[in-house]
Design brief:
The chain is an all-alpha fold. About 65% of the residues lie in helices and about 0% in strands. The chain contains 23 helices and no strands.
């Protein structure tokens, strides 16, 4: 399956409970403030969840731009029901799910790289501020990250070396298919990746009990029941998980809609349409059937691309930057309203645990993927190296990374879409940061050649993040927040003159409503 790096006998298990407690504490600390103002997709999800609780079903999507994947609205509706309709307390199940993802990343890194890397992965997942913030947001990313990471965990070697192609391990392949199916019902972006998972299972090594005997009685059925049945099981489990929603759509709208229709909207709205956004919204919202709405949006988008195919080339760079850049968007901070100043401690924490840590994970995660693939091939004879690399979990994870990038480049890039790649970046970032790669490339430099494309990609991502980073925004908010914080301390100490001076300095840096109110 993979060339797993050897690990020392030193136990790093205590890092897991520490990381879990730290993760829960940080998420509860951020959640414990006043209820934040819903923004972006949160408004839609909350509305649909309340419709479901009130027994109105999916009526929202008879007048919206697209039909959304159903699982997160159902999850939020269940959370609201448990919380007695209280929106603030309805975030608590999401907090627990986000904390459980720390354990999943620990187990995934443990299977791939040993205890030291697993401990680092758990700590990275616990403190990465993007994940901490999204735990309290009414958005689908936390649920998708949990389900997709769980699916990846089901497809890595067990501690006793059991292969996924043995009959005793078939349940894990089936569970992976269920997890990937549920992840698709949360965000449909991964649906076209399901065949790639099946293909990866087809290149897994044949186990000892599956090899042909001298009489030939165990061949080829042993191989068929191994690789092929594993591939079929994961696909069948995923399809059967998705199927009830697809059948529901066919009954409700009289047309085949596998999961959602967001791609058709993206095809029109993000390919330099001649219509304004408000006109696109108004047009689509006047088409009550989501299937007909999807057909109309698809036709408009394809017509625009036929008119000017160069649009696809012009959008590559903006969508690339949109995926990796750090943006000062509304849902970056949890605020009672988005006109208020961000408190200095919160802003400074986000710069370190969100921006800087994200930058480090992006660089080391992608580079770690490349070096891990090289390590998987290092100990193999030259004729077996390529097959060994393809069978490595890192090959599947690299394929997901590249699939996500290509999909976003051809559709639409948003900074929060980085949630899609965190599950495959954090374990390899931890492997690299824990130093488990050292000394693994003594045998030959040839395997290192496979890492060159991913190392180049890592450098390009780093360049993109640095190039697009909003430095002026960060510097302005840091300076304003620092003076406002000192003013508050001076007011608390009873030093009005000094407090007014600091408040004036904060206003001089950035004139905000809160700054004038403090004066």
């Amino acid at each position: 399956m993979s060339a797993q790096p050897t690990t020392r006998t030193t136990s790093y298990a205590p890092l897991l409970p520490i990381a879990l407690l730290l993760a829960l504490a940080l998420r509860l600390l951020l959640w414990s403030g006043p209820l934040h103002q819903p923004a972006n997709d949160e408004v839609e999800y909350i509305t649909v969840a309340r419709d479901l609780l009130a027994g109105r079903g999916w009526v929202f999507y008879t007048h919206y731009h697209w039909l959304r994947a159903p699982l997160y609205p159902l999850w939020l509706a269940g959370s609201l029901w448990l919380a007695g309709g209280d929106l603030h307390r309805a975030a608590l199940p999401n907090l627990l799910l986000s904390t459980a993802t720390v354990w999943l990343n620990y187990r995934l890194a443990l299977a791939l790289a040993g205890r030291r890397a697993a401990g680092v992965a758990a700590l990275l997942t616990a403190v990465l501020w993007t994940l901490v913030t999204f735990a309290s947001l009414y958005m689908a990313e936390t649920l998708f990250t949990f389900l997709f990471t769980a699916g990846l965990l089901c497809l890595v070697p067990t501690t006793d070396g059991q292969r996924l192609t043995t009959g005793r391990m078939r349940w894990r392949v089936g569970l992976a298919g269920v997890c990937f199916g549920l992840a698709t019902l949360t965000r449909s972006a991964g649906m076209l990746f399901l065949p790639a998972i099946a293909l990866w299972l087809l290149v897994q090594p044949i186990t000892a009990d599956q090899r042909p005997t001298t009489t030939g009685r165990r061949f080829p059925w042993s191989v068929v029941s191994g690789r092929w049945s594993s591939a079929l099981v994961v696909l069948l489990a995923a399809v059967l998980t998705i199927a009830p929603w697809t059948v529901r759509n066919d009954l409700a709208y009289g047309r085949f809609i596998a999961v959602e229709t967001g791609l058709s909207y993206n095809l029109w709205a993000f390919n330099e349409p001649r219509e304004r956004s408000s006109e696109i919204f108004r047009t689509l919202e006047n088409i009550p059937n989501p299937a007909e709405r999807s057909d109309y949006a698809t036709a408009k988008g394809l017509a625009r691309l036929r008119e000017d195919p160069a649009i696809l080339l012009r959008k590559l760079w903006p969508d690339w930057v949109g995926l990796w850049q750090v943006k000062q968007v509304e849902d970056r901070f949890l605020q009672p309203n988005y006109y208020s100043d961000v408190p200095f401690p919160l802003f400074a924490t986000a710069l370190v645990l969100d921006d800087a840590l994200y930058f480090m994970i992006a660089l080391t995660g992608i580079a770690g993927l490349g070096l891990y693939l090289a390590h998987a091939a290092r100990a193999q004879p030259p004729r077996r190296r390529f097959r060994t690399m393809l069978a490595s979990p890192a090959a599947l994870h690299s394929a997901w990374l590249l699939y996500t990038i290509v999909t976003i480049l051809l559709t639409h890039g948003e900074g929060r879409y980085r949630h899609f790649v965190f599950p495959v970046l954090i374990p390899y970032a931890a492997w690299l940061l824990a130093g488990r790669w050292k000394g693994n490339f003594r045998a030959s430099v040839t395997p290192l050649l496979v890492s060159v494309p991913l190392l180049a990609l890592s450098a390009f991502v780093g360049y993109t993040v640095l190039l697009s980073y909003p430095r002026a925004w960060a510097e302005q908010n840091l300076a304003r927040g620092w003076y406002a914080q000192r003013a508050e301390m001076a007011w608390n100490a009873g030093n009005a003159a000094q407090a007014l001076a600091f408040d004036q300095q904060a206003l001089d840096v950035q004139r905000t409503p809160d700054g004038w109110l403090r004066m």
